[in-house]
Amino acid sequence: MEYMRAALEEGDEEQDGAQVLLIALRQLAQAKGSAKVAKAAGIERESLYRALSGRGNPRLSTLFAVTKAIGLRLTVEAAS
To answer: Closest Cα partner for 29 from 3, 67, 55, 2?
Structure first.
């Protein structure tokens, strides 16, 4: 969780936040096992790779499924 938080905070300063989110999710999925994460998310492994690629444009439902499969939850909070 802290890895994702740090990646997103850094992305706000240096890169497109969406791309940073996808890269961080891809790295976490790889660490957990991409095939296992894809199965838990209910998508094909190849679809997981495409969705979380640097050029990926996943549906929100895919992001929710992948984050749940790796043990995280997407939330929104007020900006300070």
So the answer is: 67
**Domain tally for the chain?**
1
> 37 lies in a domain?
yes
List pLDDT tens digits, range 51-72.
998 788 899 999 999 999 999 9
Question: Residue 60 belongs to what domain range?
Answer: 2-69
Query: The whole model's pTM is what?
Result: 0.80
In a 10 Å sphere around its CB, with 0-12 CB exposed, 13-18 middle and 19+ buried, how is residue 75 labelled? exposed
Distance of alpha carbon 61 from its chain centroid, rounded? 12
